[in-house]
Amino acid sequence: MVAKPFHCLLCDKSYANKTSLVTHERKFHNQNVIIPHQHILSVPLYSSYCHFRGLFIDTIQSRLGSHRSTECKKKIQVHYEENLFYFIFREQETFTFQVSGYKYNCVFKGQAGVERIGKIFQCPNWWMKANKFGGETIVYYPQQDPITKNLIDKESI
Ligand SMILES: [Zn+2]
């Protein structure tokens, strides 16, 4: 019998190599929201949450500021504690977890995405940036060319 050391943690399938497991996962658990190790993720401290919120919003704002809307898709990596990412984004419709790659993913698209981020962090006008003249700049999101942000937590702990 061939050894199949790569077990799917979401069902009872096993595979001989990681590539097959990843293929299986993409095919059958593409929209997975189950975190098999959820029980070890503790509720984040409020101070950690506030720090993450600031860092997260700053990261997006700096990317938007330097790239305008020439790209239609942006990927932003925020390295932070895993439990924060999980507790903040788990309720989102676009939240997924890729078990074999240990990757969390949450997509925010277009104006609706901008508003959802504002709701999550309870700061509705987060995309308005104060410029050096003391005024405000609104980052523009063209309707026909929505900006997508993939927000990915660190891959492993
Ligand atoms: Zn499976």
From TrEMBL:
GO terms for molecular function: zinc ion binding. Keywords: Metal-binding, Zinc, Zinc-finger. The keyword Zinc applies. Residues 6-34 form the C2H2-type domain. InterPro entries: Znf_C2H2_sf (IPR036236), Znf_C2H2_type (IPR013087). The keyword Magnesium does not apply. Gene3D superfamilies: Classic Zinc Finger (3.30.160.60). This is C2H2-type domain-containing protein. It comes from Gigaspora rosea.
